[in-house]
Design a protein that fits this description.
transmembrane helix; transmembrane; membrane; mainly alpha
Length: 309
Amino acid sequence: MQSTREWPDASAAGAAPPAPPSVRPTRAAALLQVLATGGYGVWLWLGLSLLLGLSRLGRNGTLVPLGLGAVLVGAGLLLACLRIPGLAYWHGWQPRPGHRPTRSALTALVTWLPVLAVAGLAHGDNSFWVTRLAGALLMLCSLVSLLQATHDDRACLPAPLQRATALLPACRITTAAYTGGLWLWLSVLAQGGFDGSHDAYLWILLLFALALGLGLLESGMWQSLREPEAVSGEVTASRSRFPARLVAALLTYALPCMALLLGGTAGSLLAAALAAPSGVLGQLLERYLYEVALTDTAAARPAPPARVH
């Protein structure tokens, strides 16, 4: 999960380089991060299902969501390796000779090891204990990678904004579970899964619960961002963002939940094909607006007075 800011070249120290508050995020980098978050979410659900012995779609049924997650997660790394302008950094690291990966980049790279293990071990009903262990490692590494990337994003902020973004780790994990669940729903339906209506009902209820939790967390994050010494300029900017935030909420929650209600139990592939991209677009807009708000808030706050020695 790459940051939405272009970092200066400071990755040789092995830590995420600090970003100046005035650097504004880019929509392309925000899109890559939203895709990567969804990919980690797919791996989270897949690893959990392997651990609990619930993945019984056979080898192809495991490889398809595994490959889907790899595409979503690996897009940012591929573009960084190709040195695409504006997207040359991945987790604060520029992947080229002479540049040491940051902690976040190393964590993300390690996550690919259980991915390869699951790809090699997937077979039959996936009940072999080594396969289930690989699934547990996949789930754990995906969680750690999400948390490490979120920690690096928050470490670039001033102390007041770090306190204001205390809900960000929980929000990122819930986002991964929700958007990854939408992608996994699409993947399973494309393979003819969810034959039983009972399983479909449980999955729909779970996604509804995640949508509700994510909405509450995002609302709390915006509220925390406005609380510390809000000035008139910040209030005006918040009001100006409301229409865009409303569109983001419609794309993130309204359309996917409507698709779940209308086509979830019927196993409609079209409904799933509409829900997953809608969730991505909504989270892209929400992510970009929040990053811009963080940048503007950090730039508007006065710098701390210098100490006199």
